[in-house]
Amino acid sequence: MAALKRFDLLSAPGHLLRRNHQRSYEIFTRHVGDGITRQQIALLIALANLPGASQRDLVEATGIDKSTLKEMIGRMVTRGWIERSRDPDDSRAWTMRIAPAGERVLIEYLPKVEAAQQEILDPLPPVQRDQLLRCLRILAGFDAPG
Fold it and tell me: DSSP of 111-131, one letter per residue?
């Protein structure tokens, strides 16, 4: 039990990341509501920036796992937010584009998403915001340490 007495949750990165994930979810929901999820917003942003993207491109751009992404795309096609067509170079594969309705959704929700992102960072001074974002990108494998 000595190890247990030494273990401090407030020094455990996994615990702190989970708590901040919970906080960011609560802030997002307060600003955006429950009409769209964070993953759906991420997917629409990715498609706005990667027209004609493959499922593999979208997995890489969003970090959403392949099976979840496939289900999401199906639902978002049904809602008219995404257009899906066969890849002209590979008839087994699909390419996706944001549909006009998806663009309207982004136009409606993006200011709310931006406000949520700002509130997430508000407790930090500006210089620490940049440091936090850099550290998070390093932890996620997007930036090299150093």
Answer: HHHHHHHHHHHTTS-HHHHHH
CA dist., res. 68 & res. 42, Å (int): 13
SS3 at position 12? coil
pLDDT at residue 92, as a whole number: 85
d(CA 110, CA 16): 27
Tens-place pLDDT, residues 42-51:
999 999 999 9
- pTM score of the predicted model: 0.89
Structure tokens at 115: 């406000």
**Cβ 58 vs Cβ 66: under 8 Å:** no
Q: Encode 36-61: b = buried (16+ Cβ within 10 Å), e = exposed.
A: beeebbbbbbbbeebeebebeebbeb
